[in-house]
Design brief:
Mean pLDDT: 87
Number of helices: 5
Strand order of the largest sheet: 1-2-3-4
Low-confidence stretches: 1-6
Distance between the termini: 47 Å
Order of helices and strands: EHHEEEEHEEHH
CATH class of the largest domain: Mainly Beta
CATH superfamily of the largest domain: Pleckstrin-homology domain (PH domain)/Phosphotyrosine-binding domain (PTB)
Shape: elongated
Strand content: 25-35%
CATH topology of the largest domain: PH-domain like
Helix content: 40-55%
Number of domains: 2
């Protein structure tokens, strides 16, 4: 049997000679805030369960107990689905910076995603923005990439270390040969 090596690609359309410099997700604090909201719904279940049993002891009697357990089971199922969706949306929404382009993969639902890309030679402007107490303290914010193409602006929202991302993109742009830069600005 003949074995061949399989080159791992990080995203659809990745070229063989493309070097991935950075894979970016939203900052962990944004995910943690969503988890706090999810935790509130868990607390509602726990507190509601103990309060109902304390103030309405007849709920433990038949036929009420079956209906109550059904409602509680459906609520718990939606809690688990919510947790799963939070993780999937966090994990699959990524931006990838390579030596040739920036790829934005946006997961809009469990079965739907959008992939946008911009070649570095079309780059016009990169802006990093940090606003607010938590953003400044934890060093996360937004990065805006202005292009010369149809998509006027790429947004990386609530990402870690936005100034380092901005610098990386500008450094990669500066490494392009001059003929590539002029070709991208001309829209070819």
């Amino acid at each position: 049997m003949r074995w061949t090596s399989i080159q791992k690609t990080l995203f659809p359309g990745q070229q063989e000679n493309e070097t991935v410099y950075m894979v970016i997700r939203q900052h962990w604090f944004v995910f943690a805030l969503k988890m706090v909201v999810w935790g509130l719904f868990v607390a509602i279940l726990l507190v509601g369960d103990s309060m109902l049993k304390k103030y309405f002891p007849q709920i433990s009697l038949s036929p009420y107990v079956q209906v109550y357990n059904l409602i509680k089971g459906v609520y718990l199922m939606f809690l688990m689905l919510g947790l799963f969706m939070l993780w999937v949306m966090y994990y699959l929404n990524i931006q990838i910076i390579t030596n040739e382009r920036i790829v934005d993969i946006t997961q809009t639902s469990l079965i739907s995603h959008t992939i946008s890309e911009l070649h570095l030679n079309r780059l016009q402007d990169v802006t990093a923005e940090v606003r607010g107490f938590f953003e400044t303290f934890l060093d996360f914010g937004n990065v805006y990439v202005q292009t010369a193409g149809e998509t006027t602006r790429f947004e990386f929202t609530k990402v870690s270390n936005p100034t380092a991302i901005e610098k990386l993109i500008l450094d990669l742009y500066d490494q392009l040969p001059p003929e590539e830069k002029s070709k991208g600005q001309a829209g070819e």
